[in-house]
């Protein structure tokens, strides 16, 4: 049976941009599970599966509905144990929890604020007012003001990535010789801005590009099929 994945999109249904959805895309591909996309815009999220969640991703697998990217990964691991493991045991699951919090606290704040106007421009006419109102309430300032000082914080963000760069000197993936869920957590943060913003979050000569490209090539290039923002 084909799994249905509700993906966050803007005006272009072929450009899913949520980092949390991309974690699930990579997880499904890692498991080799068939799935189909249900493109969903911000104001449509409350209607998903009878209002099961205020956020996406959400999957439907037969009669089972699961929300939240980490919960989905755990569900896939438990339900399809014969497929390649996302965690490689409880230790990997615990590590993934740490990596998720590191990504959410150290990467997402800068990435999200720096790409904010670009993400706004991706929305269709019906969703732009919702996006502006909700994000300006969250940040306490205009969208334009949030993104205005991104250049001033870029250097600090790039330096924050040094532990990841250093670790990748020893192995091609966070998971070692092959990727697992922690790779998808961090990669999806970069995929988020790759498909939504042309801003140069990484320098052209940053060695992290090697890892990003390895991730883009995984699972028959499922992530690379969504083009880089122009």
Topology:
Blueprint: E1 3-8, H1 19-31, E2 35-40, E3 58-61, E4 64-67, H2 69-79, H3 90-114, H4 116-122, H5 128-139, H6 143-148, H7 150-160, H8 162-167, H9 181-196, H10 208-221
Parallel strand pairs: 1-2
Antiparallel strand pairs: 1-3, 3-4
Helix pairs in contact: 1-2, 1-9, 3-7, 3-9
- In the CATH hierarchy, the third-tier topology of the largest domain is known as Glutathione S-transferase Yfyf (Class Pi), Chain A, domain 2
Report the CATH architecture of the largest domain.
Up-down Bundle
Structural class: alpha+beta
CATH class of the largest domain: Mainly Alpha
Work out the count of structural domains. Answer: 2
Total number of strands: 4
Radius of gyration, in angstroms, nearest whole number:
17 Å
List keywords for this structure.
single chain, 230 residues, alpha+beta, Glutaredoxin, Glutathione S-transferase Yfyf (Class Pi), Chain A, domain 2, 2 domains
Describe this structure in words.
- This is Glutathione S-transferase family protein.
- Keywords: Transferase.
- One of its GO terms (molecular function) is transferase activity.
- The radius of gyration is 17 Å and the shape is globular.
- A hairpin with a 2-residue loop joins strand 3 and strand 4.
- Helix 1 (about 20-30) crosses helix 9, helix 3 (about 90-115) packs antiparallel against helix 7 (about 150-160) and helix 3 (about 90-115) runs parallel beside helix 9 (about 180-195).
- The protein has a four-stranded mixed beta sheet with strand order 2-1-3-4, covered by helices on one side.
- Helices cover about 55% and strands about 10% of the residues.
- With about 230 residues, it is α+β, with helices and mostly antiparallel strands.
- The mean pLDDT is about 100.
- The longest helix has 25 residues, at about 90-115.
- The relative contact order is 0.15.
- The chain folds into two domains: about 5-80, Glutaredoxin (3-Layer(aba) Sandwich), CATH 3.40.30.10; about 90-220, Glutathione S-transferase Yfyf (Class Pi), Chain A, domain 2 (Up-down Bundle), CATH 1.20.1050.10.
- It has ten helices and four strands, in the order βαβββααααααααα.
